[in-house]
Amino acid sequence: MRAVAIAIASTLLCAGPATTQGATTATTAASSTSWRSIPTLPSDVNKGRKLLANLEDPNAKDAQRLCPGYTAINIRNCPGGLSARLVLSGANCNVYGTDIDQLDLRVLFGPESRLNVRILPAEIPEEQESWYDTNEDYLTRTVKGVHFNPTNSHFGFQLNSSPFEFSVVRKSTGDILFSTKGNKLVFENQFLEFRTELPEKYNLYGLGEVMHSIRLGNNYNRTLYATDVNDPLDENLYGSHPFYYEHRYATLEDGSKKGYAHGVYLRNLHGQDILLREKSLTWRTIGGMVDLTFYSGPTPTDVIADHVKAVGLPAMQQYWTLGFHQCRWGYYNVSDLEGVVETYRDFNIPLETIWSDIDYMDQYRDWTNDPVTYSLNAFSAFLDKIHENGQHFVPIFDAGIYIPNPNNASDAYSYYDAGIAADAYLKNPNGSLYIGAVWPGFTVFPDWSAPGTQDWWTDSFQKWHKEVEYDGIWLDMNEVSSFCVGSCGSKNITQNPVHPPFSLPGEPGNLILDYPEGFNNTNATEATSATAAIEARNSANAAKAAAVGPMSMAMPFVSQVTPGVDIRAINYPPYVINHVQNGHDLAVHAASPNATHSDGSLEYDMHNLWGHLETKATYKSLLKVFRGKRPFIISRSTAPGTGAWAGHWGGDNASKWFYMALSIPQALSFSMFGIPMFGVDTCGFNGNTDMELCARWMQLSAFFPFYRNHNVLSAIPQEAYRWAAVADASRTAMAIRYMLLPYIYTLFHHAHTAGATVMRALSWEFPDDESLVEIDRQFMLGPAIMVAPVLDQSANYTNATFPGGENEKWYDWYTHEARNGSEGKLVDLKAPLGHIPVFIRGGNVLALQHPAYTTAESRKNPWDVLVALDSEGDASGDLYLDDGESLVQEKTAFITLEATNSLLNISRKGQLTSTEALSSVTILGVSKKPNQIRFGKAKLDNWSWRESSQVLKVRGLEGVTKGGVWSKEWELSW
């Protein structure tokens, strides 16, 4: 039986004047079969036990009080470091597991900016060490046995033997960066705890993934456990990144401030709580080992680059991926996609890529397309057309693989069968298939440790690409998510396909009626109607619940660990982390902790790596699908090093002003984590957007590396052309973005080769300015561009700080008006709807290319050079050029642009040449009118200088740069 979701038309009202007919109504599914014609899982299959998180329990055992700690013996200096044996200092406490009596301490220096401290169970055979550790193939080590002379290190390591305590010191200042003094190490088979003291009012950043301001604060709990959840605030989300940097400021003798940053990375991907308190940080994990790497900095930029190099430099993106992307859950057929693509062009809003959510699939099964709504003939014709126009297509791909109904011969699914033949799926402890539930019904999940999984995965993507010529892959639900607790399908697959245990958006009782904050002030009539509809819906749901009564769990839960598999309490560990899901149960909305891998490891140990390893496997597959080209992947779940293969989007946010504001610290966090290809669902995913929010958000996201508009099934459409004001705002911001694409692409080159950041916090660029520690409502794009968006409803202005002091110059992008730094003060900026303040930092040279509808067209256009002189009259910049897609480049060019002493000098390295000419050079900050302008030895006449703005504009350079502006070295003097 064919079954796809159907969205019920609702009474949604558009939040502003539409520019196209039909923009005020929700999209309705066109489906021959309703979800309601198939069995629906009872809602309580996704409810686990109600557990009390230890952080919430006032009677929780205090491991620091009850446990004896350790004593260090047999301390020895080793090449590049030291080692010691740690023995328990008293009787076992066994507070949240079984104490490990003896541990090995291994301290390794190298390179000079890193120090690695590992504490692991003693005398564990190397082949069994992964029980405590993470396989090097899964998560790279940060220090790999380098015999580095400790005397050359930036760090000093201090060890106290009894009780065992250690401190890490910055040699240059004597500052203690990390110290366990006065605190015990607790090391049990299911619980680790260690604590470091911190200075008062510390500035700490990272520890993601979380929706929070950039600075974490000093009375705050962080939990790391990958989960499928709708972006709640201050809770664990889709990825796990146990890395932070701390930024301290010293006062020098002259009264000025000097900033020092250092980083700490715990290479442990078990579930964990991190407790930030007034003067301390406590780490608690439910397994693994202590594997700490310290980065000396001394600036945040240095720390981040060092960490990114350690875990894996980010992938170089194809040029086209930096264009604008459009998606929604609710493009029900090929005609919907065609209409969206054509309408974007009709409104002259650049569109690079169209995406499909799960609507395109045949009954939500991976590697398939619906034979009616997405027939191969219609789909292929559409893809051929957009490819001819230089546009692209990216489909979603879910983590669960549908398991066919054995009682229905017509329910065959060859991709599942191929996975069975490859023995590619997770198992229960007794060796049977672990069967959860996702969108198509009961599903199995790939086991990334199984020998046959990679070949099956690659073969499947290659086979599918022959039918549907996709250009990249969007990985979703890969935490890994399951809609039921335990192997609920083990005795129920004869019911397949089944409806999820919750209503989909648009189904009766689940109409999308939510709007942004302040909507009632600007859209009073629509808000009144929505409020009435919400009240009616809530009353109907309450009446239905009373009539149906409580539901019993219909699906069995495989909760017991097979004897002999593992001595730990797997599904319900004794220490309960503050997990966001119902009851803090690790099995809720996820594959259960006792799901078993072919190498003997359990999801308990591997859960936070599932999406990371799926991304790696997909990257390897796409290398064979797109021979010689860089794969494009956006993944929801991430871990340290995922950026080497993919980008990330911010998950299921909502159409709220505060979510737009929080997207900035979200993006900056993923810059820290080495995943620069980051963006959010612009205009919001859940709920309905409105004109004002969407206009502001489309402009903000234009300065994020990954730029995509996406929203939920049955909400109002929110493509950029739906409102005239949004269309205008989008075109304005996109024109700037597409001009800056060569600059952004060059930033990605630096990220890929050196671990540099693309989006940047102001405090990273100005590390000595303590006033910037909490600034996350504005940001830098590389070193040259600052963006100060409007993030508040009904505001026609914003405020921003201009760092650098009175000698720093900032130029308005639009007017080229110069202003000096504001020395920590906020400055009001006029910003009517449709305007986003953008500034160029003095001292930078930008190579800009004239924008066009697609990135391919843009790359054929003429260039401009924009020189923003600093207070000394100098500026510099660079430009990286390649073919924009190849994994290994035959030819590249690296252009250096330097301005000093009224001379702009262009030098180059590399063999790549281009034919695009130079149109103009604009120089900001020219204080007096030049006597003459020369290009090399040739005198130029087509130029102007304005005394009021101090802007020099040189035009008509196409003739002197004929044959390609970057194909040779040249200079321009004034």
UniProtKB/TrEMBL annotation:
Residue ranges occupied by any Glycoside hydrolase family 31 TIM barrel domain in the UniProt entry: 314-747
Boundaries of every Glycoside hydrolase family 31 N-terminal domain copy: 157-249
GO molecular function: alpha-1,4-glucosidase activity; carbohydrate binding
Domain Glycosyl hydrolase family 31 C-terminal: 755-846
Transmembrane segments: none
E.C. no: 3.2.1.20
Record-given protein name: alpha-glucosidase
Organism: Tuber aestivum (summer truffle)
